[in-house]
Design brief:
225 residues; Four Helix Bundle (Hemerythrin (Met), subunit A); two-stranded antiparallel ribbon
Length: 225
């Protein structure tokens, strides 16, 4: 089984992690709040309190101030795809993860509900979890992204990099990609940049503009006028 990025830091800090991989586990754990006197916490959700020293707490507060600008910039780029962008404490090796609210559905529960045979389109609005992106302030990717953001928030690669981080975090955090074509196009764009292919050779239509619901119909009406 592939280790989830949620438990990277938890296992290294000595926390006991229980894998619950069967669909029935999601329903059971909603009723089973504790076991053998120990409170159960879903490590794919918010609200994980880790034992920290005073120095660690102080350092984290300093990092929050340092990365405040980056968190705001990432939230602006992702828009309503995430509820908020914050620094995370549970991550060791990954640049970022996506977690859900403490009392909301987990990524696994969201997949289970989306797979229900009798669901309809009207259920989509409340079947999608509200996601929080947690950035790892110690990861080289996040550190370099902060430098790029501090230097120029309008950098042409900034948006692509943030969306790539979001899409890969969706996959590693257990969610499914809503727009796999956009993800593939961004990968191709990054590959071209890595191969030093001139921007003139990169076709703009490879990265379709993300149109929010309702805007497409409004634009069509303007075209008619």
């Amino acid at each position: 089984m592939q280790q989830s990025p949620f438990i990277e830091g938890l296992k290294k800090k000595g926390y006991e992690v229980i894998y619950m991989v069967d669909p029935i586990d999601e329903y059971v754990i909603q009723q089973l709040k504790e076991f053998d006197g120990k409170k159960l916490k879903n490590c794919s959700k918010e609200g994980i309190d880790l034992d920290e020293t005073e120095d660690e707490k102080k350092r984290f507060e300093e990092q929050k101030a340092e990365f405040e600008g980056l968190c705001k910039a990432v939230k602006e780029i992702l828009g309503d795809k995430v509820e908020k962008v914050v620094l995370g404490k549970r991550i060791e090796d990954s640049p970022c993860i996506l977690v859900t609210s403490e009392h909301g559905w987990s990524a696994n529960m969201e997949r289970i509900m989306k797979a229900q045979a009798l669901r309809d389109a009207s259920m989509q609005s409340y079947m999608t979890s509200k996601k929080t992106m947690e950035l790892n302030p110690s990861h080289p990717i996040v550190i370099e992204l902060k430098k790029k953001c501090d230097a120029d928030k309008s950098d042409k690669t900034m948006k692509d990099l943030v969306w790539l981080l979001f899409d890969t975090a969706l996959l590693t955090s257990g969610f499914t990609l809503d727009e796999p074509t956009f993800f593939a196009n961004r990968i191709h764009r990054m590959i071209k940049l890595g191969l030093s292919i001139d921007d003139d050779q990169i076709e703009e239509e490879e990265l379709p503009t993300l149109v929010k619901e309702g805007e497409e119909e409004h634009n069509k009406m303007e075209d008619v006028d």
